[in-house]
Every structure is written in C-alpha cells, then in structure tokens.
Design brief:
GO molecular function, one term: ribose-5-phosphate isomerase activity
CATH class: Alpha Beta
Oligomer: single chain
Keywords: Isomerase
InterPro entries: RpiB_LacA_LacB, RpiB_LacA_LacB_sf
Family: Belongs to the LacAB/RpiB family.
Order of helices and strands: EHEHEHEHEHH
Distance between the termini: 33 Å
Protein name: RpiB/LacA/LacB family sugar-phosphate isomerase
Structural class: alpha/beta
Helix content: 40-55%
Number of helices: 6
Length: 142
Amino acid sequence: MKKIAIAADHAGFEYKEYLKEQLGKDYIIEDFGTHSSESVDYPDFVHPAAESVENKKNELGILICGSGQGVQLTANKHKEIRCALAWMPQIAELSRQHNNCNMIAVPARFLAKEFVLEIVLAFLNASFEGGRHQQRVQKISC
C-alpha cells in the first residue's frame, strides 16, 4: 500500500477528513494536521508533510487550503518537492505523468469534496512517464 502524507489548513480541514475516510481503505495515510477548523498558519502543517515526502517516509502528498496556492507555494520551497496546484483530474494526472510531481494541492473553497476526490485519485493512480519528460524534470531544480 502506498503511504500518503496529507495536510490542510482550517479551510481544508473538512476536505482532509473526507479524503482520509475515502482513501483509508487503499492507502496508508499520515495526517499532519490541522485537526480542527480553527484558524491556523498552513506552513506549520505543510512543511512537516513535505519533509516526509522529501525524506521518502511517504511516497506522495496531498495538501488542501482555501485556494490551494499557499500550500503549493510552501511545499515547493523544499528542494525535492514538486507540488502541482490542480483543479481538474486531467491536470492532476499530467502533473504526475509529465512533471513527476510528488505532491498535489487542491482548493477547498472552489470545488466540491467529491470532485476533489476525483482529482486526488487521478493524481494517485498516475505514474511518471519518464522518457522525454525526464530531461525536463531534471532541469527544474536551481
């Protein structure tokens, strides 16, 4: 079973709990918080989740906040993280296939929970294609 890191801020808390419930049968989920809908600072939860993926403790990561932007920007500060902001299943799938993304960020305030699940499943079920994409991915890091 794949090990997945998950983290959210207060805007994504409800979605995080929903995703854990839906994915828990097929994946080992490590929850990095938040653990309520009280206002929090998302970097406090994103950095530990990203570190767990960066250090290979978890294979992939899912991040949720209101717009998806804050968590995505924070995760991408980590050298070994490639986190995509996805609002459609096809974008999530391509982020894995072409960019070898190891984390995904989704916007809770703009999408229904069930649609976010579709996006996350597209991400989790896709694989990096390598080939012509490998050279491009290797040029991403500074």
